[in-house]
Amino acid sequence: MKIYGDKQSGNSYKLILVTSFLQIHYEWQDIDTKKGETRTDSFLQLNPNGKIPILIWNDGRVLSESNAILNFLAEGSDLIPKDAFERARVLQWQFFEQYSHEPYIAVARYIKHYLGIPEERRTEYESKQEGGHKALKVLETELEKAPFLVGNSLTTADISLFAYTHVAHEGGFDLSMYPKIQDWIRRIQSLERFKPMHSV
């Protein structure tokens, strides 16, 4: 199978992590979004939405949206709870990640870390801080109850939220304010077969 992604993207990193944890073999295809490689005709034939990551499965079928791919790859493993309610909690956190976390943490990181906060985007960058801290506080509160987001072991919920949270400082978020999040980050980084960002 092939994964099309960008090593600097948290959404792509989710798939690097899950394939490492589960020892899934794949071929990586690097896509440079800044050069417009997701807008080419050939890429748009694979994903009309023009976004990464995408997975091309062994039989040629294409799957997009990072959390959908993540859960598909983890199906049948210990990263997906067997209990239906616990599986729903995983999805709950993944919807939270896409709607209440990523739009603030990831966008602030992109504006600050990769663009250097150009003046024309300063107001947008500053507007992301409140929403980002709100999301981090939600995570901090949950991680006061258990070592992982859904119970006592790693699930795809943790992988989804870890991807951009562990680099939130690159978007101007001071993680020293969130000791439980810091513990959780270290806990995941200490797991066997953990792979750091930017490594494929």
TrEMBL record:
Coiled coil, from the record: none
Gene Ontology MF: a single term: transferase activity
Ranges where the GST N-terminal domain occurs: 1-81
PROSITE patterns: GST_CTER (PS50405), GST_NTER (PS50404)
Domain GST C-terminal, residue spans: 83-200
InterPro entries linked: Glutathione-S-Trfase_C-like, Glutathione-S-Trfase_C_sf, Glutathione_S-Trfase, Glutathione_S-Trfase_N, GST_C, Thioredoxin-like_sf
Transmembrane spans: none
Source taxon at top rank: Bacteria
Protein name according to UniProt: Glutathione S-transferase
Annotated source species: Leptospira terpstrae serovar Hualin str. LT 11-33 = ATCC 700639
